[in-house]
């Protein structure tokens, strides 16, 4: 679809369709990004110019969240940690979409409705660099309710299976040191013997083969993770903020994989969010054509 639609700012935007849901596209000479124009905030597409969507598409994945029917959809969403039943509050209505006029490249601000169970309002500021395949995503959580909340921003990006996730690890020191500098944790349904997982000297990798659920968490020192599939590398960067408290035993990066997708999940610091308070968490995305011969070791050097 190439027809024009009017949004809250009165500006026209290229409209499209994501499994029956209207979208708005940001694009430059290198890449494109699609966001939902109704519902969310969600990012549902990201790809090289003329290329396929690197994000997973799961429009038929739904469940009863206890607050109504939650639609997973695929792509990129924002939850809050620690994980509870209140993470998956339905978000299919109530979005306001505006252009950001002071940006260097195409940019939009997506403001979601207030979630009744939590009092939270979720906002994305999505900015596409004018010339490169780089996108910045600012996630904003605002407490519009009456309760103080102890939460961590938890953005989740679903990617297609068939690739490998790469997490750089600190180089081992020849010096004897008294305190640990690495943290790796598993969820109860995961096992160290899972053949999708490999812990190497310089990087940990998780191969996204369709299989039962598996989840692993890290205390990333670099604030970076990559996903390599068909010669295209998706890079996600965030502030590691190593001195800050985190949920999930201290993880700031988590990876989940199952039969349909692989998820890259960064976590912001735990904050006490009083009524009227906001907190932000930024991610930087990049796409690189690295070629069919690229491997995990080479990817780790790029992160």
In brief, what are we looking at here?
This protein is 2% helix and 50% strand. With 303 residues, the protein is an all-beta fold.
Structure, described:
The chain is an all-beta fold and about 300 residues long. The chain has one domain: Beta-galactosidase, Chain A, domain 5. Helices cover about 0% and strands about 50% of the residues. It has one helix and 24 strands. It has a ten-stranded antiparallel beta sheet, with helices on one face. Strands 8, 13, 15, 18, 21, 22 and 23 form a seven-stranded antiparallel beta sheet that branches. A five-stranded antiparallel beta sheet has the order 1-2-3-4-5, with no helix packed on it. Strand 3 and strand 4 form a beta hairpin. About 40% of the residues are buried. The N terminus is likely disordered.
List keywords for this structure.
7-stranded antiparallel β-sheet; 1 helix; globular; mainly beta; disordered N terminus; Beta-galactosidase, Chain A, domain 5; 2% helix; 303 residues; 10-stranded antiparallel β-sheet
